Amino acid sequence: MKFFYEKRPVPLQIHYGRDLSYDAHMHDHIELVGMLKGEAAAFVDSREYRLQEGDVFIVFPNQIHRYEKVEEEYYMIFIFQPDLTEEFSQVFQRMVPEDALIKGGMGDRKLKQAMENIMELAQKETDMFSGAEMKGNFLILLGRLLARMRLQGTLAADTQTLRQILNYCVEHVEDDLRLEAVSAGLHISGSYISHLFVEKLHMTFGEYVRTLRVSRACRLLQDGRRTVTEAAYEAGFNSLRSFDRAFAKQMKMTPVAYKRKLADGRDKGMGN
């Protein structure tokens, strides 16, 4: 299957939509869809699902997935980093669902209420209190969802190896992620790792690591407690120059501007 690696520039994306159709891709976020009306076709690792009114659909990090339109549809979609709810991060790194579709999942009143609460909170300015409330609702949502699912270990062949590499990088994002270090840590040929990234993700291994670390830095800056320098080194960069360059390329703004934008949002929230 041909697919592309999607660089997600923000750690959290939430919205209502009317057309799910999207080419085969993968990313390091969790993707969750709640179908409110209509029907769509979804594919995860070549398996087809039909999403109908009241269903909930979830894609774990680094799973190849795509969507096709079947009829007019209306849905809620949540795309977020696993460390938003670190309580479940190990589940998302090491497991995948046997079945990605939870038929009638929105019939669970508490689950649906959590989804609606998250949607409402996403429309508000972010402050320390709404951030905690957002996380609380995600914990309720995922707790009730995962309790209804059967999970299993990951896949086979190149895809399994690729997932193994991606998960290793996520777990060791603050450590040495040079190609030779990852190769030694996983006992996988460095040339094979490079081949997989170019062949499967259409990006180099180095580009992926920089993308991962910028996303990590964004998450660290969001709590407001870290300086740009602290976030850079904690995310695994070994110089501010390389961090600034990678951050600006991915986020289309400097780290300082990003931190200032977050601070302005918190100030407005506190002033309401």
Please sum up the structure shown.
The chain is α+β, with helices and mostly antiparallel strands. It has helices at residues 89-94, 109-122, 128-146, 157-171, 179-186, 190-201, 205-222, 228-234, 240-251, 255-271, and strands at residues 4-5, 12-17, 22-26, 30-37, 39-44, 47-52, 56-59, 65-69, 74-80, 96-97, 101-102, 151-152.
Structural topology:
Layout: E1 4-5, E2 12-17, E3 22-26, E4 30-37, E5 39-44, E6 47-52, E7 56-59, E8 65-69, E9 74-80, H1 89-94, E10 96-97, E11 101-102, H2 109-122, H3 128-146, E12 151-152, H4 157-171, H5 179-186, H6 190-201, H7 205-222, H8 228-234, H9 240-251, H10 255-271
Parallel strand pairs: 1-3
Antiparallel strand pairs: 2-9, 3-8, 4-7, 4-9, 5-6, 5-8, 7-11, 10-12
Helix pairs in contact: 2-3, 7-8
Task: Describe it.
The chain has 272 residues and is an alpha+beta fold. It folds into 2 domains: 4-152, Sandwich (Jelly Rolls); 157-264, Homeodomain-like (Arc Repressor Mutant, subunit A, Orthogonal Bundle). It has 10 helices and 12 strands. The protein has helices at 89-94, 109-122, 128-146, 157-171, 179-186, 190-201, 205-222, 228-234, 240-251, 255-271, and strands at 4-5, 12-17, 22-26, 30-37, 39-44, 47-52, 56-59, 65-69, 74-80, 96-97, 101-102, 151-152. The strands form 3 sheets. A 5-stranded mixed β-sheet has the order 1-3-8-5-6, with no helix packed on it. The protein has a 5-stranded antiparallel β-sheet with strand order 2-9-4-7-11, covered by helices on one side. Strands 10-12 form a two-stranded antiparallel ribbon. Helix 2 (109-122) packs antiparallel against helix 3 and helix 7 packs across helix 8 (228-234). The chain is globular and about 50 Å long. 31% of the residues are buried.
